[in-house]
Sequence to fold (395 residues):
Amino acid sequence: MTGFASCPGIVIITLITSLISIPVKAEIWTNEISDVQYGRIGSNVTLLCSASRNGSAVEWRLNGTRVASSFAVLQNGNLILTNSDSTMEGNYSCHDKKGQLLRATALRLGYGPALLRIHCIAANYYSICCSWEQNVKTFLPTEYISTFRHASKASETCHQDFFRTNVCTIKNPKNWHSSYVVNITEVNPLGSTFTLSRIQFLDIVKPDPPERVSAEAVHGSPRRLRMYWEYPATWPKESSFPLRFQVQYKPMESRSWSVVEATHLTTELTDVLAGHFHIIQVRAMDLLGNGNWSEWSTEIKALPWLEPTPKPEESESSTQSHTENTDHSSTSESKVESEEQYEKLALLVSLGSLGGVFLALLAFFTILIWVRHKGKEETSKQELTSMMKMKSLPM
Ligand SMILES: *[C@@H]1O[C@H](CO)[C@@H](O)[C@H](O)[C@H]1NC(C)=O
Ligand SMILES: *[C@@H]1O[C@H](CO)[C@@H](O)[C@H](O)[C@H]1NC(C)=O
Ligand SMILES: *[C@@H]1O[C@H](CO)[C@@H](O)[C@H](O)[C@H]1NC(C)=O
Ligand SMILES: *[C@@H]1O[C@H](CO)[C@@H](O)[C@H](O)[C@H]1NC(C)=O
Ligand SMILES: *[C@@H]1O[C@H](CO)[C@@H](O)[C@H](O)[C@H]1NC(C)=O
Ligand SMILES: *[C@@H]1O[C@H](CO)[C@@H](O)[C@H](O)[C@H]1NC(C)=O
Fold:
């Protein structure tokens, strides 16, 4: 599925109801002017030495070294590569008896276009995103022509993504109830082939997963978690197509999920396992029931409210939600608290020692500055007295 993850944030699903292929062209493109010649792997490829006259001997080189005769046959100065394979790619050059270059060609080998796998999906009611993959890797430069038609209308352009050549978008599909036929034509130097895919709009509706999913403990309720999330950014909130949601959750150690439905952007889980971290995910679906559920949102972790331990001085902690990764999911609260105490103590000790070092440094520098200052004063005093002495000397 990885190759299809090209529509933003979507893993794509579609029904391909029809697939038709008509090979349009299938011959070797030999362009005399261009330096590149394309050939089909497995076929006999003929390389022409344009200046070859009959009778006059020519020499062929591949990447600068003489072509072995086991590799190919010479015919009227032309080189024929039998049963070509990808190891025969490279720069071919044809030289006369004196070694003068007559013609140089870069040979690239691959396959002609074949049927594509097309997947279309609608992350909302206002666009259809189609993407496609090669069933056969062609190894050759490839372009795509993407069109679509619905009902008996003329075909229109499916707008291709500038950066990803295997994605196109149908903007504002006009009729949600009719079917669309998407036509993707693959073109490469060995020919072109088109693939058709028939889609029913309402079948391919699949929202992106809900976003900003969060959970918080409910104070005083060790078996409850309150959940919040938002519409996926790709699903217009103001649209007349609301979403419904499912929340699945389980204690971290557990295998089986519990599921609850929701139609709003919040819900309260009422039967979570007290004192345990839970894994929670949310997914969305068109409220009208068209299409599929979204993928699940990425997992979040949450801990329900913990009852304070009997120890009187250590209450009032861990009442808040914990959504960060924590390992001591099954350890008791008192252990967590004593760990916290240790951390505080360690922090104090390190702060104290840091302060000591700082004070010592401060004292050292103060003494240093004082000593230097004193020294300067001394010298300037000496200078002054000597100058006065000199002045008082009779010139
Ligand atoms: C390729 O050339 C070989 C030897 O000349 C011949 O036997 C074979 O039939 C040719 N293959 C094709 C596909 O033309
Ligand atoms: C060489 O070319 C001449 C005409 O230019 C032709 O009559 C002759 O048959 C050719 N010889 C070969 C071996 O192809
Ligand atoms: C093949 O030709 C191209 C273009 O002339 C050149 O850049 C490249 O280095 C050549 N490769 C080899 C292996 O000779
Ligand atoms: C010729 O050089 C190309 C790179 O330009 C390389 O990919 C190819 O494998 C070389 N062919 C041979 C037969 O060494
Ligand atoms: C699909 O598109 C190609 C290229 O635009 C075109 O040649 C072909 O006729 C189309 N096929 C159908 C069935 O519309
Ligand atoms: C999407 O829904 C269709 C039917 O509406 C179903 O056949 C298909 O398996 C679903 N795909 C996924 C990935 O759930």
